[in-house]
Amino acid sequence: MTDIPQITLNDGHSIPQLGFGVWQIDDETTPGVVSAAVDLGYRLVDGAFIYGNEASMGEGIRQAPSPRDALFVTSKVWNSDQGYDKARAAIDASLKRIGLDYLDLVLIHWPCPSRDLYVDTWRALIDAREAGQVRSIGVSNFNPDHLDRLIAETGVTPAVNQIEINPRFQNETVRAANEARGIVTQAWTPLGSGRSFDTPVIKDIAARTGKSAVQVILRWHVQLGHSVIPRSTSRDHLASNLDVMDFALSDQEMAAIAALETGERCGPDPVEFDAD
Q: What does residue 74 show for φ and ψ, rounded to 5 degrees?
């Protein structure tokens, strides 16, 4: 089994550097994917209310060949549940759907600055942590000004900020802001919908290492030092995604991948996104 490095969070807990997400996996498929991933060696399972499969994710956790306390389970508070009371109720509901006594990490899914509720939502996460429902709390898609407001108004710094990162959208400003504040960066859409698979630099590294384009990009994420959560429904692909700890990219190769930056997002801009 692959030995997955752990990253220490600012609250003293730790998070596996490599995990998997269940976004866009249907209810029927999710339990088998979760169980298979844990069987292969994954310990980080990233879900969310809005994915619509929390219950089936929980079923997969119960079927998995690993005790609950060996797993790191994440969920997220959706935009329509922002505000103190709604967020506390949303965490209660997620725990019930998943069938767990606690979550390892809960994130505010988007800041939705036009609603101006993310500070109250953050206070709900703080209290859920104090109540033992959650071990670590964090955010997703937060920009530096959103982070600073949370910290200034509550005195509590997020443990994690999950943001879009891939070779064509490297989000360097937010990554640097996270590091400066002691926040672990976690990457969603880490493969960038495959848009950089056929670039000469990725193909050259794949040829040198005998790895796939996917493995090269996941290794790039690992060497950047953040946590990464690729998605797959295939056991073979899950195993392949995990097999990135036995090779390294050179400084020159890391720099060449950095040069693939175009500023083109796969997902929405956090300043503007406000969907229910």
A: -115, 140
Cα 244 from chain centroid?
Answer: 18
How many other CB atoms are there within 10 angstroms of residue 93's CB atom?
Answer: 14
Total number of residues shown for the chain: 276
Token readout for 5 is: 């490095």
- As a whole number of Å, the CA-based R_g of the chain is 18
237 in a labelled binding site: no
Helices (H) and strands (E) in the chain, counts: 10, 10
Pairing of strands 103-108, 134-140: parallel
pLDDT in tens, 95-154: 999 999 999 999 999 999 999 999 999 999 999 999 999 999 999 999 999 999 999 999
Residue position matching structure tokens 């504040």: 181
138 within 8 A of 111, measured Cβ to Cβ: no
> What tens digit of pLDDT does each residue of 175-186 get?
999 999 999 999
Question: 16 - beta bridge partners?
Answer: 6
User: CA 175 to CA 144: how far, in whole Å?
Assistant: 9
56, 239 contact by CB (below 8 A)? no
Backbone angles phi, psi at 199, to 5 degrees: -70, 150
The half-sphere exposure of 113 on its side-chain side, counting CA atoms within 13 A, is: 13
Question: How far apart (Å, rounded) are the C-alpha atoms in residues 161 and 210?
Answer: 32
Pair of tokens at residue 18? 């490599």
In the DSSP assignment, the letter for residue 191 is T
Ordered by where they begin, the domains of the chain are: 14-194+225-232 (3.20.20.100)
Task: Encode pLDDT of 36-72 as tens digits.
Answer: 999 999 999 999 999 999 999 999 999 999 999 999 9
| Dist. CA 145–CA 269, nearest whole Å | 14
Active site residues: 51
